[in-house]
Amino acid sequence: MKYNLYQYKKEIPEGICLFVGKESNYSKFLNDEKQIKYLNSQFEKEKNIVEINFYDSKFYFVNFKNETISNQNEKIRESGSKMTSVLNSDKIKEINIIDVDKDADLINLFVEGMILVNYSFTRYYKEEEKKKPTLGILNIYSSEFKQENLSELEKITDAVYFARDLANEPFSGLNALQFSEKLKQLAKSSDLNVHVLNKKDIEDNGMGGLLAVNKGSEHPPTFNILEWKPENAVNSKPYILVGKGIVFDSGGYSIKPTKNSMDMMKFDMAGAAAVAGAVKAVSENRLPVHIIALIPATDNAVDAKSYVPGDVIKMHNGLFVEVLNTDAEGRLILADALSYAQKYNPELVLDLATLTGAAAYCIGTQASVIMGTADDTVFDNLKQSGENVYERVVQFPFWDEYKDMLKSKIADIKNIGGSEAGAITAGKFLEYFTDYPWVHIDIAGPAIMSKKSAYRTEGGSAYGVRLLYDFFKNMI
User: Fold this and answer.
1) Is 200 an active-site residue?
2) Relative to the CA of 137, which of 264, 283, 348, 383 has its CA 20 to 30 Å away?
3) Is the pLDDT of residue 70 over 70?
4) What values do phi and psi take at 23, rounded to 5?
5) Do residues 290 and 169 both lie within one domain?
6) How much of the chain, in percent, has pLDDT values that exceed 70?
7) 90: pLDDT strictly greater than 80
8) Which of 331, 392, 414, 466 is the catalytic position?
């Protein structure tokens, strides 16, 4: 999509126009009393978007007052997403967006919703161009909205698109090696440093969790390190992001049923995609924050060589883990990465993972589950960022009593707890591999959308990209 920003005074630009304001008097843009009466009557009927079609032009008017979502910013984003859907339905390619109220924040939010919903994943259609949205050019007319606002928004939404593309790519096009190549390309375009550990490097580092999960795979694992280190970084010790990179999850010998489970498992690397997208957004917007991303990547396949229930594996930090469920594999590769993160003496570590169905069952697609050992300020800031971008988070208890559910009779710990508190015991498992302030973010619910929800497109939603970007931006 192309974006153009123009100074708006009073002249209405030629072409199809979209007038955006809160509760503005739109009658000044119309000369006909019948049109004005019609417009007001539609708003009174609680219509959010009203179209008036002339012989030589078309006007759209947006009204926010009838939205029902409690968060005002989200009302504006959702109106933007609805507007894009209308424009694509009308096969419109270019639109003039007019800032009626001289409100830069309103325009920013509205355009954000417009852009986020205009995403499509079309590369596997024979007639790809026919499947893409028609809307391709946004001309923004405003006296207050600045080029730096538009540039930042463009980079953030581009990072969301990047993360969605990664998550939506099928395993046939994205094994661990191919994923690493994508990250190398990202590093070149986003001024990041990248280092990829191959299988021998992973063996030399004693990453037993990643190696065990990979045993049944045709493809070797990778361990990816992305770094953004600006000279003016506000943090002396790095912030570290860890993303679960299971590029496909069969469940291993604890195999998944196919209905609504294995057929969605190309998305099991949505945490890794979100982490990569967040680093892309931070680096391309030149935020003065030192960030390192650690992304272990493999598929979890079934083969004669696969690890099986009852196996015991030695992890990166030397702990022995009894594997009682090979479908609880994400925590094994995350554990090695969290242990590896200790070498950086980090200020804070946050991991993102589609880790447990339990988290999704608890709160659905409306939020992620968070827990960990960071101080209350970190959790409060995450919650606030969640509200800011409407990628909300819910903090779960993290009491030590939950560790009792991970006791093994033959090893230091086992990789699953009981049938209760599955999201929390998964977090408590990961805690064994941390010695720093840390937050675990289980994105199993909101990261994968079975159907479109406002600007969250079906498939990979890229949940976490905007959350993390806002979180780091507010540290400056």
Assistant:
1) no
2) 283
3) no
4) -135, 50
5) yes
6) 99
7) yes
8) 331
Q: From CA 176, how far away is CA 297, in angstroms rounded? A: 5
Q: What is the pLDDT of residue 83?
A: 96
Domain that holds residue 297: 155-473
331 is catalytic: yes
What's the pTM?
A: 0.96
Q: Which two tokens stand for residue 101?
A: 């109220």
Active-site residue identified among 184, 256, 383, 473: 256
Taking the C-alpha atoms of residue 173 and residue 379, their distance in angstroms, rounded to an integer, is: 37
pLDDT tens figures, 226-239: 999 999 999 999 99
From residue 274, alpha-carbon distances to 39, 69, 135, 323, 436 in Å are: 42, 25, 26, 28, 22
Does one domain contain both 54 and 162?
Answer: no
Last residue of a domain, one of 120, 145, 170: 145
Residues in Cβ contact with 176 at an 8 Å cutoff, skipping those fewer than 6 apart: 214, 217, 219, 220, 221, 222, 245, 247, 297, 298, 299
Q: Tell me if 327 sits within 8 A of 257, measured CB to CB.
A: no
Distance CA 393, CA 39 (A): 39
pLDDT at 293 over 60: yes
Whether residue 127 sits in one domain with residue 196: no
Q: HSE on the CB side for 388, CA within 13 Å?
A: 19
